[in-house]
């Protein structure tokens, strides 16, 4: 016999035909009244009327139940929001009964105040079931946005994502359980779109050939705070995280931007502090970590084991000439303990005196390597670091160089005395033969089959030896005369210390896809596409500069999606294609 049934048997029950009356005479029996309320909610019942005119407070319910409570037990009662009867029993507590209609769905718009295109949904049922949420499309060009959730927990809340700005949003909520089917349409009026949202123009749209999901932009042109947002395939904003007025993040600068953890939450660092954050889809801070002795910049990346790799500056780090250095350390943070589990000091492994790519050795703070990204290579437990001013380097956990992918011009020794030339990869042509021309090796000229990357960003690896990056092309061939950026793929043969270029896109676009700083490239696995996203100073027409997002079929190099965004200076470091919902 279950506990609730036992409790209800302990009440005084008087039957009169088909009606059931439950009477509570002792005020101390609050728990039993609470159990009765639970049974009302389970039955999806509600109050139809109540009577306070005699010694007892009598509540009538839709399904022929009557609850009678000694009037002396009740200190106050009132109707709240027209759908709840609030019964205050003094020191015992307060109970809220569904009034006039069972409130199965509770929708809370913008629950924390940071996500104005969202709501949270609570389903007031202890029965398991499925709740389906559909946001109606804005116009004929759009599509309805539907998400289903399996409901097993009375206290669970579900995100409702994808509202439109400045719109009467129609939200259809459907509930299906073993014995109940119910639906309700709820209207949410949203405010005007903020004026900091940039001009968005879509020039190519082939939805059948595109990777599904939404385009997530870690927008940087908006400052104090930076504000990321998601766009649907029609360029409509469907999600935004705006920490304006937040006590901790109102001046947020996430630098490279937000990424999504395996658990579905977002994570980022806050430049120039020593803090990293994990937040949920509504912007609630789930975790915050501090990197004692370091300052975050650029990038934080989740490893397969859940730890975080972070590009940092070490407080007090100095160059051999006595000046301070910045952006030349990598740390691994243990997410469970919050402690730094490992440190890579790039001054030890790389050449801090190599100044060929815009390094100012006379600066008070020498930015000699400018590590702008770090990823793991789980195939051999190493890390790969994108060093804007020194190429891409692979390091093991002893901070030993495995290879360096950069032109061969003027490499020397590191602090350990190792000659770094031994770690330089030799380029191959399309036939697999080594390229030996010194002008090409040193980056002064390009080979028809091979080009080095220049001031690159956003590396990632596929299948262990396929290395992609965004080749910005800044100061290409040391003279900077050719201005184009590329998404480029190389095959790294670590055993033979060679590199072969096997795929590239962007050179043919010239200035209209050229960004000398920031920017991103990603692989989209469902369609075998490449997302190429130059993020600053891109020519979007006469007098218009900003960024472009170009989705390319890997096999044919056909453009299946292209969007230009006009905004000043840095528009983004990173752009992702991802599902709207975090699962």
Task: Describe the protein's architecture and organization.
There is one protein chain. The chain has 583 residues and is mainly β. The two termini are 38 Å apart. Helix content is 5%, strand content 43%. Strands 16, 39, 40, 41, 42 and 43 form a 6-stranded antiparallel β-sheet that branches. The protein has a 5-stranded mixed β-sheet with strand order 1-2-5-4-3, with no helix packed on it. The protein has a 5-stranded mixed β-sheet with strand order 34-38-37-36-35, with no helix packed on it. Among the domains are: 96 residues, no CATH class; 85 residues, Arylsulphate sulphotransferase monomer, N-terminal domain (Immunoglobulin-like), CATH 2.60.40.3100.
How many beta-strand elements?
44
- Tell me roughly what share of residues is in helical segments: under 10%
What gyration radius follows from the Cα positions, in whole Å?
30 Å
Q: How many DSSP helices?
A: 4
Distance between the termini: 38 Å
